[in-house]
Design brief:
The protein is built from 6 helices and no strands. It is mostly helical. The chain has one domain: Homeodomain-like (Arc Repressor Mutant, subunit A). The protein is elongated and about 40 Å long.
Length: 92
């Protein structure tokens, strides 16, 4: 994969399945579609970096493949109910 966020299409290609098949199978097995799994994994990695490094929010966002810091912050807040800055502050 090149830079950018991992897509359902990319992951489906890795496991040699169609995006629709991958998403529907994950939905049946876990209750979440492939895109939700991708978002959860990104947030998990972001939490790790926020709690264990001194990387800036921008560095973390771009490192995870986000083109815009605002998109990262919005997804992070949507998933955790806290901004990346507030999450990091809880460790200091």
């Amino acid at each position: 994969m090149s830079k950018g966020l991992p897509s359902v299409e990319y992951l489906a290609g890795v496991v040699n399945r169609s995006p629709k098949y991958l998403s529907s199978t994950l939905k049946i097995l876990t209750g979440q579609n492939a895109q939700q799994h991708i978002h959860d994994k990104l947030i998990e990695k972001a939490k790790e970096k926020l709690s264990t490094t001194n990387m800036t929010i921008s560095e973390i966002a771009y490192g995870l493949g986000f083109e815009h810091v605002q998109s990262f912050s919005k997804l992070f807040k949507n998933k955790t109910k806290r901004s990346p800055v507030a999450f990091r502050r809880s460790f200091n």
